[in-house]
Write a structure and sequence with these properties.
Length: 251
């Protein structure tokens, strides 16, 4: 994918984020398509490698061992890290659909697992091309925050799950402890965008990240949104001083 930077259009789209669902969709799809070649490297660098541990922990909450031969959804799969890790888990004999609407992200992750086990599918989280009750479980890592209509996204996942299947959300959160919070906010709003911009060459993608986290519902509100979308027994835990959180709901 050629790395084209149309900064004026990006700024215009950035301004639309949060005010228009269509604007957000176009903007998000575009920035992830543009940063795809550097996405993995920046993830490791900016999180000091903690993101891997968070994904492993989130996968443990999926309960895939109840149906190891089942079919699972890795939603907003990006470069397929979550799906690839699930495919490598001892005892897992099922299949995974890695769905993302930014094709360059999926392409950047191809090769992390065989297509027979982990199938990348270009699809919008708001209109998944699968029948009702197709999946034995679903997981989304750092993706649901980007979906233009949270409620509709949650309902769409609910539709695609079998009864009693789990949905796991791993997402950034904002720490509450004052000192940690101050340090985190400084890093997230000042250091991270700088490094992100230097390495990705992208002007706005890594300023969008902290802004999107700030605009995303905090843990109790996300749990309430999951319940409103039809999930029961919704629970969550915070990770690494509250920098991230894992929510789990059951259909
Ligand atoms: C921050 S990345 C996370 C990727 C991956 N899950 C991970 O853990 O690294 C967010 C991904 O969500 C995708 N995304 C955002 N909104 C989407 C939507 N409505 N439908 C499908 N994918 C979407 C983006 O294209 C991007 O690849």
């Amino acid at each position: 994918m050629p790395h084209t930077l149309d900064t004026e259009a990006l700024e215009a789209n950035a301004a639309a984020v949060g005010t228009s669902a269509a604007g957000k969709r176009t903007y998000v799809q575009r920035i992830f398509s543009e940063i795809a070649p550097r996405y993995d490297l920046l993830n490791r660098l900016l999180s000091l490698g903690i993101d891997r541990r968070w994904r492993t922990l989130a996968l443990r909450r999926l309960g895939w061992d109840r149906a190891p031969q089942g079919t699972y959804l890795d939603l907003c799969a990006g470069t397929l890290d979550v799906g690839a890790e699930l495919s490598r888990m001892q005892g897992f004999t099922g299949r995974i659909v890695g769905a993302d609407f930014a094709e360059p992200m999926l392409r950047a992750g191809s090769g992390k697992a065989s297509r027979e086990v982990l199938l990348p599918v270009v699809a919008d989280a708001l209109a998944l091309p699968v029948r009702d009750g197709a999946f034995d479980g679903a997981i989304v890592a750092f993706g649901i925050r980007n979906v233009a209509d949270l409620g509709a996204g949650l309902r769409e996942v609910h539709r695609t799950l079998k009864p009693a299947a789990r949905f796991v959300i791993l997402e950034f959160s904002t720490p509450r402890m004052p000192l940690v919070r101050a340090a985190y906010l400084f890093y997230f709003h000042h250091i991270l965008p700088l490094i992100g911009r230097m390495i990705s060459g992208h002007k706005t993608a890594y300023t969008y990240l902290p802004r999107s986290v700030a605009n995303f519902p905090e843990t109790t509100k996300l749990a309430a949104a999951m319940t409103a979308a039809g999930f029961r027994d919704v629970q969550w835990e915070t990770l690494t001083f509250g920098i991230a959180a894992v929510h789990v709901g059951t259909k």
